[in-house]
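# step 3/5: fold
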Amino acid sequence: MKMNKPWMITASAIVATSLMTGSAFAKSENGNASANAAASASVQATAAKEEKDAKVKVDAQADATVTSDTYSEHGHQGYKGLLQAIENVKDKPAGAVIADLLVSKYGSQLTAEQKAEFEALVEADAALTAAADVLDAQGSVTEAVYVQKEAVKVNVKNIDSYKKLGKLLDKSGEAGVKLYVNGEEPSMEVRPFIREGNTLVPFRAISEALKAEVSWDAEERSVTVTRDGITVKLFIDSKTAYVNGEEVTLEVPAAIENGSTVVPVRFVSEALKATVKWENETKFVVIYEEQ
């Protein structure tokens, strides 16, 4: 999945501003939507100027300083200066920014191998994660969370990206088991939790996130979910379940917690042909569908 250009510009501005002035954003007081919008507008304005002037300054730790002449379209070094600079910062915030400049301005002068490598740096959500790192370092955890959530959407299969988001959420006070489906956090009445080594999640939340039909039978206390010709049926407080009529034994049964039916997430998701990953350090359940 390609990164949306506005977010590439936003990330570029955050990195460039941090490297050149030592400050990406003033810390948000309340982290509300209007503050995020204002910050985004300010960042995009800075980005427009940065992109117009084509200036990027590599941090001193990389032992490389690239002048405006290097980054100017008419600079005496041109793309050769960028090629030299990116070798020092491929794994740093400026790496994805320089890669984007190389591909967008000098794509015709790159070899096929170079172009593929630099496009990968841009598309693998590196710029957004780098921007989140800068914001976190500046103490703007709320904004860092917001940007890292965008990074997750860019590549819903990148477990490291969820790990980074999980750490930021923990830092912001949102500890506990986390659940994202296709890059988004579903609406949940109760939080996911672990029981006997298995993660249980609200059945309706995960089913709706996967666009499945859900029904409840009060008499037999069962829940049934149907999706793409697959039917999964579970019984409350029973380890017996059925997938398309075939009996399956669960490690832990479905249950009712605070009025919501919760089910073992791996069983249900995999029965519905979705991929399930577990990030242990931040207790992050990641579910996505292969496209």
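# step 4/5: annotate
The chain is about 45% helix and 20% strand.
# step 5/5: archive (pending)
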